[in-house]
């Protein structure tokens, strides 16, 4: 993965100045996305990140920015849960949408996700909010924007990440079959037009944020529907209960 601290800054600066270098991305994803990193918009994004890190604290740390891809290689993706941008509080974001590291209190949206899991499948609320066990089972926990300035939600929107993550969605749609795309909230819902509903299952609901969860996220039954779809395809269901 990307190296931390000063080394991460040096890596980002090198990437901004050297258009021939590709990121240290999981090999199957690098095969799919590698050419994107040579595009002008990615060079502009790299330069933006260098500037941001020079003046502000940016989350997640560089070593964690591409964690969604490392935990869930391209050929293992069975479910995509699409988030917006990373948590912007210290110690929260680690490259998987909605997930926080052990020891960090689950944010309200994640608490509501656990509540829906409990109501629909009887899964007890876990003692932590780290969702890496989901990712290892083929759940791609992808934010549409992969970085954020500390304490400023959506501060890295419109800088180029969306084009890269749209490429992720397009590649999965075109090259894989039977994936479940879980789109919570209006921004994620707008990605439905990129997905072939004849070949994949699209699940949409309001965002699990406390501002909208009561408008249809609670009771959506998405976790049960995901497992029913996987079983119908002869695949193992997702074990949603998190390990202690």
- Our count of helices gives 9
Q: H/E element string?
A: HHHEHEHHEEHEHEH
Q: Which regions are unreliable across 5 or more consecutive residues at pLDDT < 50?
A: 1-20
What is the overall shape? globular
SS-based class: alpha/beta
Helix content: 25-40%
Distance linking N and C termini: 25 Å
How much strand? 5-15%
The radius of gyration computed from the alpha-carbon positions, rounded to a whole number of angstroms, is 17 Å
Q: How many strand units? A: 6
Give the neighbour order of strands across the main sheet: 3-2-5-6
Taking all residues together, what is the mean pLDDT?
A: 91
How is the main sheet built?
4 strands, parallel
Name the assembly state: single chain
What would you note in describing this structure?
The protein is of the alpha/beta class and 244 residues long. It contains nine helices and six strands, in the order H-H-H-E-H-E-H-H-E-E-H-E-H-E-H. It has a four-stranded parallel beta sheet. Strand 5, helix 8 (186-189) and strand 6 form a beta-alpha-beta unit. Helix 1 (5-17) packs antiparallel against helix 3. The longest helix has 16 residues, at 40-55. It starts with a helix and ends in a 12-residue tail after the last helix.
